[in-house]
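G., before I forget:
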Amino acid sequence: MKNHEIAKILEEVAIYLEMEDEIVFKVRAYENAAVSLASLAEDVEEVYKKGGIGALQEIPGIGKGLAEKIEEYLKTGKIQFYEDLKKKVPVDVSSLKRIESLGPKKIKVLYKKLKIKNVEDLEKAAKAGKIRVLEGFGKKTEQNILKGIEFMKKSRGRFTIFEVESVVREIERQLKPVKGIEKLIVAGSYRRRKETIGDIDILVVSKNPGIVMDAFTSMKNVAAVYGKGNTKSTVRLKEGIDADLRVVPATSFGAALNYFTGSKDHNIALRKIALENGLKLNEYGLFHGTKQIAGATEEDVYRALGLHYIEPELRENTGEIEAGGKTRLPKLIGYSDLKGDLQLQTNWTDGSHSIEAMALAAKKAGLEYILITDHTKSLAMTGGLDEKKLKKQGEEIGKINRKLDGITVLKGAEVNIMKDGSLDIDDRALKELDIVGASIHSNFNMPRADITKRTLAAMENPNVDILFHPTGRILNKRKPFDIDIEQIINVAKSTGTVLEINSLQRLDLKDEHIRMAIKAGVKLCIDSDAHTPSHFSALQVGIAQARRGWAEKKDIINAWPLEKMKKMLK
DNA sequence: GCCGTTTTCGGCCCGACTGTTTTCAGTCG
């Protein structure tokens, strides 16, 4: 699928145009088109094949001009307009822009004055103190740039589970049809559903490793082959991540899957138990002397060790093995247990689709109810709603509910928590809503005590039911703000405030916080934060995160039927 | 460059914050 490739080019064009002082609306048109393409469920190439340039123009945000450019890309593999921009200013704009505090204008100055083309050049110049003397820059900016680079480096090498998901899909698409592959499963931290993943571990059962390895090393997204043998091969993929493939016999599949799923600490603990019982556990099986007593399935291996089956999401050696011996393992919330979604945006603010379209998409995703939570007025860039518009939206929702079947739309909002802890919508208007979520969108750098106090103030408002993305982080992009999560959990308990597990790009709360909250008896919800219909798929990752936090159905309020869920709210 | 059940031309989300300045450009959301 070329949707993301093209989206990335359009994003870069937008940066270039902004550098060139192009009118802001044109820049935005490119940005919008990029978002639209990236979130498009269908393959843009298929769209074009079926309906030509006219069908491309049916995609929201794509008009005549961009449709032609997309056609050019599909036909020739490049867009000349973009190539020319890149030639004129040969700068890695998308990497540089990813550094906080750097935008198109600053990138332009850095290139013009210091010939900075990439992050490496930038770091050198910043360390040499060359940036602070530039006009419009200063000491503080230079420090911020270095901090930004530091953060970028730390997250380099690990990919978010969202990024890896599409790479895994692509690998499966290419390998599943290969003859001789009896079983294929992606193990490793991907299978444990960790929020970030270092490399992709693929396990295959086959009697014909040669064919499998040939297919693996010649996949079209392979950039380099590091090693190729009969049981193990390693490649670097064009997406920038490494992938390992191992072929094992069917009799060892369970043991191998267990071994390669990890975590390492979990495996070490299992091997210890084996040793205590006079057994030996390795990737080929559980052995008594030279005799294999288990190994074909993971269930066999756990059973033979005297344990209950432990779900991959729990395998971090943080108590699951002790619990597995005493049947104290949680009955984790299932991947199809959600009945509702309590945060999503529509085209009333920064979402791309109407309330009705989102409701229909939610129904298709298997949900029974959704809460509309458009932004509120102080978030001006999204066109946040004021009291009047909220009321109007409520009326609209009423109409839609009368029209739709099988899905209930609830009235809500994502209310902004201001610097002083007040909300930007008055209580009278909040009372009219079914459910209110509150969250922080500005002043992230407040000291711990202040930002905690600010959040607690919002939670203590009797109209606020849910605290959305409680720590403000975005995976690999923005650090959480310095907030006292224990205190948040305590007050969530005493005020009956629900804490959110926000799925889309955030995974906030994170797994250990989820576990802390559950232990304290706090209720949680898993939300998509969808801005477009395809975003509902993020719920699966949110559920995974909840499972990593040992969450059961009883802990997650939107896994409950609507009436029961409503009853527990403030 | 996109878009249209008020429009095929003339609109298109804009306020807060930061760090630089001494009145504001750039960035972020």
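Residues 23-30, 32-33, 60-66, 100-106, 135-141, 144, 349-350, 375, 378-384, 441-443 of chain A lie near DNA strand B (CB under 10 Å from a C1'). The domain at 3-155 of chain A is CATH 1.10.150.110 (DNA polymerase; domain 1).

More on Monday.
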